[in-house]
UniProtKB/TrEMBL annotation:
Keyword Signal: no
InterPro entries, sorted: AAA+_ATPase, ABC_transp_ATP-bind, ABC_transporter-like_ATP-bd, ABC_transporter-like_CS, P-loop_NTPase
Organism: Salinicola lusitanus
SUPFAM superfamilies, per database record: P-loop containing nucleoside triphosphate hydrolases
Region (Disordered): 249-270
Start and end residues of each ABC transporter domain: 1-239
Domain of life: Bacteria
Gene Ontology molecular functions: ATP binding
Protein keywords: ATP-binding, Nucleotide-binding, Transport
Designated name of the protein: Dipeptide/oligopeptide/nickel ABC transporter ATP-binding protein
Length: 270
């Protein structure tokens, strides 16, 4: 569906990304993990069409994505949306939730009943109508993150690019936001690329994991297999670092293999 191929991007003659070649299939939950400086943000900027690669290409549904092609990027924003790392900073403090969630619809010239779309998007992230008139300052971190997700899904994208969507949230709130992302994937069939330095976050959510190390994808495997037997020493080190902070890694069960059903967003408390 979407993905870069053989990317390179240089700053002052130093390549930041060297061997990056992967595709994201429709409805897939895929994690991209790597230590600080591995190139995650650079890759994200390229995938968002915000920066141009020195070499290589990015394609989405048969169209090549690159900065400058305004018409293609406008179409691309309807297909691929972004969930920022710091929702508090990304939400305009002067706007109400109603306006914040509607803004991308207006910006992208999407026709239709915006009121209904806004309410539906909020419901999908487990926020009811009482949030419509609230401003960002009155939201908790988890609520602000869910408003940021509602903004992204209001345009009904097929792929979400989420940059460290759980960072800065305490553990119970992380669990709620994780559940929202799982439900969006399961119920609305939205693919997700989750970018994180923390493999335990990827393990909780993703069926497939990519490991980025010094600008190269060194592993691209089903999450369960990667956790059982990392092929690279670097991955094993990342796993050890993650287990230091989390006990969830002792029993890695990707969503596709987990027994039982996911709670719906209506069952998730605000
Ligand atoms: N504008 C720039 N000029 C020069 N070097 C850069 C620039 N942006 C990034 N880099 C370098 O590219 C490498 C990858 O940076 P990037 O921000 O993509 O890593 P990251 O994996 O997202 O790290 P973090 O998790 O800390 O955000 C780093 O060595 C960084 O110093």
């Amino acid at each position: 569906m979407a993905g870069p191929r053989r990317w390179g991007w240089r700053r002052e003659r130093q390549p930041i990304l060297k061997a990056v070649d992967f595709a994201i299939r429709p409805g897939e939950l895929i994690g991209l993990a790597g230590v600080s400086g591995a190139g995650k943000s650079t890759l994200l900027n390229l995938m968002l069409g915000l920066a141009r690669a020195d070499s290589g290409e990015i394609w989405c549904q048969g169209r090549r994505i690159q900065p400058g092609s305004v018409r293609v990027l406008r179409w691309y924003r309807r297909v691929v949306q972004y969930i920022p790392q710091d929702p508090a900073a990304s939400l305009d403090p002067r706007m109400r939730v109603r306006e914040l969630v509607r803004e991308p619809l207006v910006h992208l010239g999407i026709d239709g009943d915006h009121r209904r779309r806004v309410s539906e998007a909020l419901a999908q992230v487990g926020l009811d109508g009482s949030f419509l008139e609230r401003r960002p300052e009155s939201l908790s971190g988890g609520q602000a993150q869910r408003v940021a997700i509602a903004r992204a899904i209001a345009v009904r994208p097929r792929l979400l690019l989420a940059d460290e969507p759980l960072s800065g949230l305490d553990l119970p709130v992380q669990a709620k936001v994780t559940q929202v992302l799982k439900s969006l994937n399961h119920d609305a069939d939205i693919a997700l690329l989750l970018i994180s330095h923390d493999l335990s976050v990827v393990c909780r959510l993703c069926q497939r994991t990519l490991i980025l190390d010094a600008g190269a994808i060194i592993e691209d495997r089903p999450t369960a297999a990667l956790f059982r037997q990392p092929a690279q020493a670097h991955t094993a080190a990342l796993l050890r670092a993650a287990t230091t902070f989390s006990t969830t890694l002792s029993m890695p069960v990707p969503p596709s293999e987990a027994a039982g059903r996911h709670p719906t967003t209506q069952e998730i408390p605000s």
